[in-house]
Amino acid sequence: AQSVTQLGSHVSVSEGALVLLRCNYSSSVPPYLFWYVQYPNQGLQLLLKYTSAATLVKGINGFEAEFKKSETSFHLTKPSAHMSDAAEYFCAVSDRQAGTALIFGKGTTLSVSS
Amino acid sequence: DVKVTQSSRYLVKRTGEKVFLECVQDMDHENMFWYRQDPGLGLRLIYFSYDVKMKEKGDIPEGYSVSREKKERFSLILESASTNQTSMYLCASMGSESAEDTQYFGPGTRLTVL
Q: Do A96 and B99 touch (CB under 8 A)?
C-alpha cells in the first residue's frame, strides 16, 4: 500500500529564513504528489502538485517542490519565510492505478518567528 | 472558483445521537470525499462517491454511512455518535476520475460528541 512520511511534525523558522518541509513516499510506480496548506480554522488549499510534467514544481505563495525519484522524495521549500506562512502543511499521494483517493501524511506545523 | 461548503463549522452532539454533516459543491464535480482529521494522524478517508447514489468505503468507514442523492450534495451520517468520533471532518470534491486532478476542500466541521 502507498504511504507518505512527513519528517518532523513541527518546524520552526525565523522570518526570512529558508523553509524546508520534508516528504517521502513509498510507491513502486511514480505517483502523483501534492502539497496542501491549512491555515488556522480553514480547509485545505492546494499549494502545488507533481504530475510528471516537470520535476521542479512551482506553486503559490513562492513555494516550490522537487520530485526526486531516486530518493522517493518531494520536499517543499521556500527561500524566505513570511509570518503569513505559519500553517499546517500536508503532503499527499495518489496512485495512478488505484483511483482518485489521496493518501495524506500526518502533517507538519510550520511556525515563523519575527 | 470551486466552492465547497459545509453546513456547520462547529457542532456539539450527545453520545447516541444521529448526526448529519452536509457538504455541497457548486462545480458539477463527479467525485466527492469525506475525510476525518485528527492531530498527529493527518487526514483519513472515511467514504467517497464517484457518482449519484454510488459510494465506496475508505480507510475508516466504521460507525459512518453516507448519502448522495444529488450530484452536488454528499452527506456524512453518524448513526449513533460516540465520543471517539469527536474530530474535524473535511469534505472535498474533484471534477474528474483522473488521479492527477485536484481535490477542493470545504472549511471543515469541528464535531464534539459529549
A: yes
Torsion of CA A45, B8, B71, B35, to 10 degrees: 50
Over residues B94-109, mean pLDDT: 84
Residues in chain A: 114
B18 interface with A at CB cutoff 8 Å: no
**CA angle, residues B65, B70, B76, in degrees to nearest 5:** 20
Cell numbers for A79: 527561500
CA–CA dist A93, A35 (Å, integer): 9
Q: Which cell goes with B2?
A: 470551486
Q: Quick one: pLDDT at residue A51?
A: 86
Closest C-alpha to B45, from B63, B53, B62, B33: B33
pLDDT at A53: 76
CA B25 to centroid of chain Cα atoms: 12
Chain A residues whose CB is inside 8 A of the B104 CB are: 46
User: Of how many residues is chain B composed?
Assistant: 114
Distance CA A114, CA A112 (A): 7
Beta partners for A58?
Answer: A64
